[in-house]
Specification:
The complex is a heterodimer of chains A (about 260) and B (about 180).
Chain A (H helix, E strand, L loop, with lengths): L1 H4 L6 H18 L4 H12 L14 E6 L5 H15 L14 E7 L6 E7 L7 H5 L5 E3 L5 E3 L9 H5 L6 E2 L18 E2 L5 H7 L6 H6 L7 E5 L6 H9 L14 E4 L2
Helix pairs in contact in A: 2-3
Chain B lengths: L1 H25 L3 E4 L2 E4 L16 H22 L8 H8 L17 H8 L6 H4 L6 H9 L2 H4 L12 H13 L1
Antiparallel strand pairs in B: 1-2
Classes of the chains: A alpha+beta (about 260), B mainly alpha (about 180).
Chain lengths: ~260, ~180
Amino acid sequence: MANELDNIELRPARRRFMQSSAALAMTLIAPGVLLYKTGQAQSENEPGSDNKDLPATPRWGLLIDTNALSEADVDACVAACQQEHGWHSDAGSQTAAQWIRKIHLTDKQSGQQTVLPMMCQHCADPPCVDVCPTGASFKRADGIVLVNKHTCIGCRYCMMACPYKARSFIHEVLQDQLAVAPRGKGTVESCTLCVHRIDRDGANAVPACAEAVNRDGRKAILFGDLNDPDSEISQRAKSHGATRLRADLGVDPGVRYRGL
Amino acid sequence: MRSHLTVLRCLMLSTLLGWFACLPAAAGEVESSGFGAVVIPQPVKPTNASACVEPVDIMRRDHMKFLLHQRDATVLEGERDSKYSLVGCMDCHNATEPAETVVRYPDPQHFCAGCHLYASVKIDCFECHADRSLKQLQQGQLDQPLEDQFPENQPGSALLSLHTFHQQLGDTGGE
């Protein structure tokens, strides 16, 4: 699990060697493919496409330690999110807003019960973005998956595409929305990873759910940059492990769990 | 025949002039005419700021361009320091203090609604964004337990005026 986080970065010299040897192999094996191969290699070497001189783009994510979370803690996460963004949901409603919700897991063999918070997993390859007909569902450069409500037409394809059921639809007319979370009837919404806090505080940001449960130096929900191998979240994932939910789907969620 | 026409023209002209002469007196009020109700907008200047983010003539012409640019920069790229923000507009143009002065967007007295109604502009900013400054509300929310802010199963509970909201806060706080 830990090595899943490791970003395998080939050194430029090694990469060039691999490319040239691949090109040589292509010449020997299939001359017709050579043009395509060299063309690709050239475009990769163009200035601007090589990122080694640019500051690395962060990829924000969460590491949720389910061992440290009680059921009350998860409830606190949900309440904090509601307070932060001004949404609320009536228990048992089929159409309630669900930025974050409480999930019970039972291991069938051992009977072990786990409770965990479930929200938008901020996938690297988000299915919701793939299916959106207007481009309203999008992934920011820093990996946060959002709904641009200015272009959302409320078709709800993204809700169907999401394997984590992380999105919900607003059915009622709203008023007095909070400045950090404009939301209105006819649009889809989900966890924003507290993007307003991230835009303000950068790597030091603490999402509302994390703030609600991280007490006394404990970090049950850790926010950080998954792309930075030295960040606390990467280090902890390396030493303690980090599970992607439904890793078999290959969407590479940015929210990762420990203790599952 | 020609004289009849001239008289008719004079009559029409004088009626039209007379109608325009009435305008200053009727400004800001609902004027009933043969064409239906017409509201002449008279936006009230905010008292809590000395100047807008741009000169008034520029704002009148281009405020929608500023807002459109700002909204994309904010949503897509996360730039939140722009001076052109709808929240910023509301902080001055529909402040919550005193609570009695708060007006909703459907009300022609709302700073935005007055001109939009007059110019037949139908815009849906306020279906998602708050149509008034919410500094007070957010401040109150930090101290209030959640169940007090969102009384369960109360249809339209989000439609309370700030006045009622504060009253409710006072009531629950007293218990």
